[in-house]
Amino acid sequence: DTAVSQTPKYLVTQMGNDKSIKCEQNLGHDTMYWYKQDSKKFLKIMFSYNNKELIINETVPNRFSPKSPDKAHLNLHINSLELGDSAVYFCASSLWDRASTDTQYFGPGTRLTVL
Amino acid sequence: KQEVTQIPAALSVPEGENLVLNCSFTDSAIYNLQWFRQDPGKGLTSLLLIQSSQREQTSGRLNASLDKSSGRSTLYIAASQPGDSATYLCAVSPIYNQGGKLIFGQGTELSVKP
């Protein structure tokens, strides 16, 4: 059983388009995240949601809008795509625990290429 | 501002060697430090999580240590195998964070030659 799933796995699109990436977790976690991995493989947090509520927004352009219809889903919508948005986007989930003894579970990633 | 650095960026060893990957972080105010493995084109798999009060964790051939005061962690891999080839990432969970974010190093790309 897939714990954290993302669709699509690959996304190729033109500059200026709007696209969405979907994420679902079946682990019963209440916190979900989006990370961006750039061409140098550096992973950086973008957003964190706890029980459908936005907790972290790491100065991401407002062209990126996460949406959480329920605590098992966190989708990422991107407007007016730019060349610099090309990257691998990872969704992750964990339990909400400030002591953070629980690890984060990552999805397989979505490789976005903007032409 | 918390920064995480991993050295070396890439490492190639013959099969059977023991090896050490290094991770350093600038702010010791962390809840935990985690080591992940990333295979090409795949997501991240958690290997070991060391809480801030712990000194080390072991899982099979892997042993991770944490020296919070000096801002260092090492991942020791014993008797390396070609299947260990992957990128290894360390990440810290800062105490003064909201929402449990992780701050990652840039990874060490390991290649184990048969």
Attribute tags:
heterodimer; A: 115 residues; mainly beta; B: mainly beta; 6-stranded mixed sheet; 11 strands; 58% strand; globular
Task: Explain what the structure shows.
The complex is a heterodimer of chains A (115) and B (114). Chain A is globular. Chain A has strands at 4-7, 10-13, 19-25, 31-37, 43-50, 53-57, 64-70, 73-78, 87-94, 105-106, 110-114. In chain A, the strands form 2 sheets. In chain A, strands 2, 4, 5, 6, 9, 10 and 11 form a 7-stranded mixed beta sheet that branches. In chain A, strands 1-3-8-7 form a 4-stranded antiparallel beta sheet, with no helix packed on it. Helix content of chain A is 0%, strand content 55%. Chain A contains no helices and 11 strands. With 114 residues, chain B is an all-beta fold. In chain B, 0% of the residues lie in helices and 58% in strands. Chain B has strands spanning 4-7, 10-14, 19-25, 30-38, 44-51, 56-59, 62-67, 72-77, 86-94, 103-104, 108-113. In chain B, the strands form 2 sheets. In chain B, strands 2, 4, 5, 9, 10 and 11 form a 6-stranded mixed beta sheet that branches. A 5-stranded antiparallel beta sheet of chain B has the order 1-3-8-7-6, with no helix packed on it. The model of chain B has no long low-confidence stretch (mean pLDDT 93). Chain A binds chain B through residues 4, 31, 33, 40-45, 48-50, 55-56, 58, 90, 92, 94, 96-101, 103-109, and chain B through 31-32, 34, 36, 38, 41-46, 49, 51, 87, 89, 91, 93, 97-104, 106-107.
How would you describe the oligomerization state of the chains in this entry?
heterodimer
Strand fraction of chain B: over 45%
* Mean of pLDDT of chain B: 93
Shape of chain B: globular
Major sheet of chain B, described briefly?
A: 6 strands, mixed
The run of helices and strands of chain B is EEEEEEEEEEE
How many DSSP H or I helices of chain B?
0
Roughly what percent helix of chain A?
under 10%
Q: Total helix count of chain A?
A: 0
Largest interface, chains and sizes: A-B, 31 and 27 residues
Alpha-carbon Rg of chain B, integer: 14 Å
